[in-house]
């Protein structure tokens, strides 16, 4: 009797993205001739066999596809990533849509999470990453970084629950939950609880440590949003990434044993058929309208653009010790929008169905803060008084040289990234469509969701360019990504390709990351100024 080998929980890197649209690890000159097809002499598919869910055979089953063929820069990036990490993770398979961004992301991620020269120990950073990902029930990241924590000789007892971790680590639970769910509620007093100083001799952390911790938390809160927004599948060699075929029982993953693909093919076919059908006439009409509005934005004069800010109702009524302004400039109708498109069940294994981690182990129930929308009547945080570019970059780079600049490049790259191909199927000419206003609207809408106000941005553009369904999706992605389903992915409100949806997700989650950093770093600065004045 042969030894049973676990099977991948899903044969592709994403539950949501059709396999033929994902960058392939098998490089062929025989398929997709419209793409770069020069085979790389250094490619060797078997080198990635240990993550077989990423290494798709083109002949092993009737429902596998070769995927998109990468061009030379992407091939080079894939090879370099494998050489440095020992795997091509499902996350990087998706990020390889955007090689220039992926390179910058890898640089900042290394400095924040992996570089031994940082003020916080690497093993502590990995555990903090687990805590952060647990806030959003992110199976992929929790399982992956438990794996890395063990590889770094972390105390395995800590993985049994936060109560077994050091007091130093446990003290971060409140900061973790506030940054994840209500960063606008963070106060200098929360920072004071952490830092050892004359006023708090029982503190465990230095100021430089807390800045590093905030970077790690913001990184993994936002990364959880991206992972769950793209339906990224747990790695084969981590918990939740595989199963024993002999243990398959009727009803597992919402299907029966007679479906040899466990509903996966049906799920991917559902996505393709939905896209082909245009989902519904409303989305198609909204997409056409968005294209026309983007064209009109390009043709509008600077004088017309500047009028919007004059129409925003502003009333300065400070409620907190923060740069603020009270405004109802954005319609709150979308917060009441009923998202009926979220209610359908999916038939394949998916986040929320095959969850194997107990995320509560890494949270402290005595301090947990559930998510709630930023109160419409509350004071907004004025970014012209404290912002990432003018203040945060330098503040981060003091304890972590160069990291502020790396993150700033990362933010700029994803905000400015475009190949002018968006909605190409809907445009009758070859004229390039400038999507800058759309990318800006997504970015500043997310900042506004978190209570941040940019004085020189015309917020009327948000309601002008983004429909309510799309705004509901962005809110869910950034605030409660654990609730994302395949139906959300399929029906965002506009007709995007899978690559464009990933781009939308990246813009939104990077804006979320910046929002958390602004709140966290501003409170550290306020704590420092109070300490200096005493």
Automatic annotation (TrEMBL):
Subcellular location: Cytoplasm
Pfam families, A to Z: PA26
Molecular functions per Gene Ontology: L-leucine binding; oxidoreductase activity, acting on peroxide as acceptor
Keywords attached to this entry: Cytoplasm
Gene Ontology biological process terms, A to Z: cellular response to L-leucine; cellular response to leucine starvation; negative regulation of TORC1 signaling; positive regulation of macroautophagy; regulation of response to reactive oxygen species
Protein name per the record: Sestrin
Family classification: Belongs to the sestrin family.
Superkingdom assignment: Eukaryota
Chief place where the protein resides: cytoplasm
Cellular component annotations (GO), alphabetically ordered: cytoplasm; nucleus
Record region (Disordered): 36-68
Record's keyword annotation contains Cytoplasm: yes
Keyword Cytoplasm tagged: yes
Listed Low complexity bias regions: 36-45, 52-64
PANTHER family (alphabetical): P53 REGULATED PA26 NUCLEAR PROTEIN SESTRIN (PTHR12474), SESTRIN HOMOLOG (PTHR12474:SF0)
């Amino acid at each position: 009797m042969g030894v049973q080998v676990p099977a991948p929980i899903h044969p592709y890197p994403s539950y949501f993205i059709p396999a033929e649209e994902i960058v392939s690890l098998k490089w062929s000159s025989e398929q997709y001739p419209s793409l770069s097809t020069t085979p790389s002499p250094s490619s060797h598919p078997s080198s990635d066999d240990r993550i077989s869910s990423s290494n798709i055979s083109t002949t092993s089953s009737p429902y596998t596809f070769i995927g998109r063929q990468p061009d030379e820069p992407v091939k080079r990036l894939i090879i370099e990533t494998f050489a440095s990490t020992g795997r091509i993770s499902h996350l990087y398979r998706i990020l390889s849509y955007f090689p220039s961004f992926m390179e910058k992301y890898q640089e900042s991620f290394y400095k924040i999470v992996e570089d031994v020269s940082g003020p916080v120990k690497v093993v502590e950073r990995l555990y903090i990453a687990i805590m952060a990902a647990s806030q959003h029930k992110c199976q992929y990241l929790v399982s992956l970084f438990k794996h890395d924590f063990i590889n770094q000789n972390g105390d395995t007892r800590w993985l049994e629950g936060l109560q077994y971790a050091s007091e130093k680590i446990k003290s971060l639970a409140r900061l973790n939950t506030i940054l994840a769910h209500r960063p606008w509620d963070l106060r200098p007093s929360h920072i004071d609880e952490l830092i050892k100083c004359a006023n708090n001799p029982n503190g465990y952390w230095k100021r430089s440590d807390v800045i590093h911790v905030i970077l790690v938390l913001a990184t993994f809160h936002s990364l959880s949003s991206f992972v769950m927004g793209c339906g990224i599948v747990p790695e084969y060699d981590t918990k939740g990434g595989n199963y024993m075929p002999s243990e398959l029982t009727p009803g597992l993953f919402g299907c029966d044993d007679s479906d040899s693909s466990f509903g996966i093919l049906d799920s991917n076919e559902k996505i393709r058929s939905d896209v082909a059908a245009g989902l519904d006439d409303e989305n198609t009409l909204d997409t056409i309208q968005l294209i026309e509005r983007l064209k009109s934005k390009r043709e509008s004069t600077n004088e017309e653009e500047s009028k919007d800010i004059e129409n925003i109702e502003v009333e300065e009524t400070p409620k907190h010790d923060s740069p603020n302004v009270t405004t109802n400039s954005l319609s709150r109708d979308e917060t009441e929008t009923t998202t009926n498109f979220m209610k359908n069940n999916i038939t394949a294994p998916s986040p929320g169905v095959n969850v194997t981690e107990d995320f509560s182990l890494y949270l402290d129930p005595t301090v947990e803060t559930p998510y709630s929308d930023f109160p419409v009547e509350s004071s907004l945080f004025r970014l012209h008084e404290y912002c990432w570019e003018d203040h945060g970059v330098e503040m981060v780079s003091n304890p972590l040289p160069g990291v502020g600049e790396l993150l700033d490049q990362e933010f700029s790259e994803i905000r400015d990234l475009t190949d002018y191909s968006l909605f190409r199927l809907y445009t009758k000419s070859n004229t390039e469509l400038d999507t800058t206003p759309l990318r800006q609207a997504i970015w500043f809408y997310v900042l506004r969701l978190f209570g941040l106000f940019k004085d020189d941005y015309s917020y009327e553009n948000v309601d002008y360019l983004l429909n309510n369904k799309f705004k509901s999706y962005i809110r869910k992605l950034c605030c409660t990504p654990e609730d994302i389903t395949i139906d959300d992915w399929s029906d965002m409100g506009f007709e995007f390709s899978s690559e464009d949806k990933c781009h939308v997700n990246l813009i939104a989650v990077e804006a979320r990351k910046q929002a958390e950093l602004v709140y966290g770093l501003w409170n550290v600065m306020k704590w420092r100024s109070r300490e200096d004045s005493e």
